[in-house]
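Anyone up for a design puzzle?
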């Protein structure tokens, strides 16, 4: 399974898990919401009904309603039977006057305060009182509607109306069905009377916040479980990527291990063919090459596993002339190149080119830099320029090339073990990603420093600073 498929499966699984957690938390919220304020609601209902036992809507409400609705019931009946428009106007005046008087006389807040003291309720309570329906009966149990909450009445312009009816009092704005503590319909079965239906809603000032506070342990546990799953996946995914990368690096190492030995072997083979050429007269330089590369091959075999596993190099340093070592390295590399279109130049600008150095690893440093300068180069004529310089404290060796350069995004990785720049070149370029790793290890082992100046498409310059 590739990374895209793995991430897709992980994201889908996380979405499903989050959905299940949300469903469980939501159901828990709804369950708490249904049972929230249940005991207090029953107490308020009982005490409210006691307060209006012989009354309507509120204490004193019946007197107000009677004064407006019962004042001339027979006149209302006459208009209803003879003049519909006049009945509607009369009905509007009665409802306006009765409802406005109820709003002015609203005293449910004092009723609730009395209930809170009696029942030891410490929550802050808000309420909303609504009249839903008013109807008159001219004949026993035959009602004529004066107002109904199911039909918006344009004539009642001075009053607040909504789906619950006409607002009489209270500050409760977010009305939940569970906050209905009393729903009453009061009427008498006789002629010339009226029926009134009203609702009292009571709830705490912050119902949702209170429920969420009660659910906080559940919410935290849910978030913790999701977070744990995400963290576990992240750690597993990161370890999987590391294992995958390690597996790929091992595969590359196994498939290309011989590449690291090609440099000395190629030089030895070319030198051997030169010796076999009957026209060759001066064989001493060729045998010197064979000797150096054979020694290099022997040391490389012993060192490769130590370098890649222990990240340490044992040096055998001695006083050496840097210019002479560079000339030998260039000679060996030119012999390896054969007829390849590569120009190598050496500018000897250093005034004091002597220092302690391990010749094998010195040779390794520059052969690997040269090798990269040629491999990562698309120019028809590849150029490598070596420039030495010095001051009172340091000796500097610069290696410049006209290759493809190193993008800034990957520059920090080029000295990492097994790292290869496959973004700018074809993967068919041979190598294990160990060349510049060897370079850095050897430079650090000598207690030198190395810096890179490069941009994509502009070549590269490696600068090695050797303290004197």
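Challenge accepted. My sequence:
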């Amino acid at each position: 399974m590739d990374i895209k498929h793995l991430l897709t499966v992980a994201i889908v699984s996380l979405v499903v898990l989050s959905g299940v957690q949300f469903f469980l938390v939501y159901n828990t919220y709804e369950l708490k919401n249904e049972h929230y304020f249940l005991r207090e609601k029953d107490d308020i209902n009982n005490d409210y009904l006691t307060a209006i036992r012989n009354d309507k809507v509120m204490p004193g409400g019946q007197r107000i309603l009677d004064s407006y609705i019962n004042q001339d019931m027979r006149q209302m009946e006459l208009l209803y039977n003879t003049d519909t428009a006049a009945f509607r106007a009369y009905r509007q005046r009665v409802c306006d006057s009765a409802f406005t008087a109820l709003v002015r006389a609203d005293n449910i807040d004092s009723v609730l305060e009395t209930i809170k003291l009696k029942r030891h309720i410490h929550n802050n309570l808000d309420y909303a009182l609504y009249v839903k329906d008013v109807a008159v009966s001219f004949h026993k149990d035959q009602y004529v509607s004066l107002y109904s909450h199911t039909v918006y009445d344009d004539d009642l312009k001075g009053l607040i109306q909504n789906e619950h009816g006409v607002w009489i009092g209270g500050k409760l704005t977010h009305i939940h069905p569970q906050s209905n503590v009393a729903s009453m319909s009061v009427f008498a079965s006789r002629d010339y009377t009226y029926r009134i239906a009203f609702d009292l809603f009571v709830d705490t000032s912050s119902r949702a916040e209170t429920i969420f506070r009660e659910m906080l342990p559940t919410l935290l546990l849910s978030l913790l479980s999701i977070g744990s799953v995400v963290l576990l996946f992240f750690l597993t995914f990161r370890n999987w990527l590391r294992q995958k990368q390690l597996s790929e690096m091992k595969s590359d190492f196994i498939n290309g291990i011989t590449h690291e030995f090609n440099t000395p072997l190629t030089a030895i083979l070319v030198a051997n063919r030169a010796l076999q050429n009957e026209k060759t007269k001066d064989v001493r330089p060729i045998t010197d090459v064979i000797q150096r590369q054979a020694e290099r091959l022997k040391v490389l075999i012993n060192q490769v596993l130590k370098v890649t596993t222990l990240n340490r190099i044992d040096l055998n340093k001695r006083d050496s002339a840097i210019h002479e070592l560079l000339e030998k390295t260039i000679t060996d590399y030119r012999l390896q190149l054969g007829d390849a279109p590569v120009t190598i130049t050496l500018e000897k600008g250093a005034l004091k080119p002597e220092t302690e150095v391990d010749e094998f690893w010195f040779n390794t440093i520059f052969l690997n830099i040269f090798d990269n300068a040629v491999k990562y180069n698309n120019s028809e004529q590849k150029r490598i320029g070596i420039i030495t310089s010095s001051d009172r404290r340091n000796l500097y060796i610069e290696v410049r090339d006209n290759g493809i350069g190193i993008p800034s995004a990957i520059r920090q990785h080029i000295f990492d073990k097994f790292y290869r720049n496959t973004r700018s070149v074809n993967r068919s370029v041979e190598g294990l990603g160990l060349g510049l790793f060897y370079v850095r290890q050897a430079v650090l082992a000598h207690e030198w420093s190395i810096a890179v100046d490069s941009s994509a498409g502009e070549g590269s310059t490696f600068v090695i600073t050797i303290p004197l």
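A detail worth pointing out: Residues 36-213 form one domain.
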